[in-house]
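Objective 1b. Sequence-to-structure analysis of AB hydrolase-1 domain-containing protein.
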Amino acid sequence: MSLQTASFVFDCPQNVRDAPGQVLKMAAKQYWTPASMTNSHGLVLLFAHCIGGHKEQWEPTIERIFALRPGIVREVWAFDWQTHGESAVLNSQLLRTSPSRVYGVSALEWSDAIAAFVNSPRMRGKRIVPIGHSAGAGTMSASIFLPSAFGNYLLIMNFCGMIRVLTTKDKLVSEIPYASFILIEPTIISRDLFYAYLEDRAGQMEFVVAATTARRERWRSREDAHSWMSKRVPWELWDPRVVRKLNEHGLADAPDGGVAIKGDRLQEALSYPDVQPHFDAAQELCRISLNIPVHFIWGGEGSLVPQFVQDALAKSDGRVAASVTRIDAGHMVVQEQPDAVADKICAVLDTIESFEAQGRSKL
């Protein structure tokens, strides 16, 4: 199998917090094989990473999917959040100097950028399957919104008092171009459930924010970084291929020598208390899950998401899960068990093909 890649940079939709004409960038990478691109009916998979992740973390999983299901997948796209990975490098000056960016970049803005991509001529008529891990799962679920470039806006106050901007215009379910959703360890939660367990949720949030802001982010060299990470949690629990991808693609040469994690850990930390995207995603799943299959993949005992949240997502407030499966790993299941994640994704893709084949046979 000869897996091909191409890198892209897309302009994000104009956000009202930025000056007209001043927009963030979103880095993306496309994956395909010469044979897969001849499959005009093949699926297009879109991947969104977790907080602290980057698009290339998916590559071991993507490679296995192409190896296992060469006749099903046409192409794959993976995206960097505007404050993560290569996107963070592209946006560094704006994020560092703009007063409007002191609260970072909401996952809703990432959803907007992905929605703009999905609604572009490039994706017209494609059979799309969005796949997200952790906060990336909520991002994909909220990408059902129409891109909000100069549309209707609603100002809201989130849990930490930050002002966020949301589009108030939804797509009709019949207009959503997604064949299915695959949500891996999603941190999606309804507003009511979040506030019912506020002390528990806020305590966990404070812990991850503190850990992120205290995390080491510079090393003398890539070799030094790899050696250091390989001996410490969480990286020592990861598949070695994913650690190498972080070393190759998640680090940048520092101006003063050595290497540093792409992006600012403070910007990353700001992503955790931004809970509105999780609320919006929960609401959207209520609206669409009877018509678009939603598949959940959870880790085992090390899951960051409490069982009561998992149960609520599977069946409450009108939400219906097409399937719920588990992998023996923690919340970072994508990093720890990339092959097992690929296997679960392939099983879901088989159900899409089987369902649509049955539909075509009845015509």
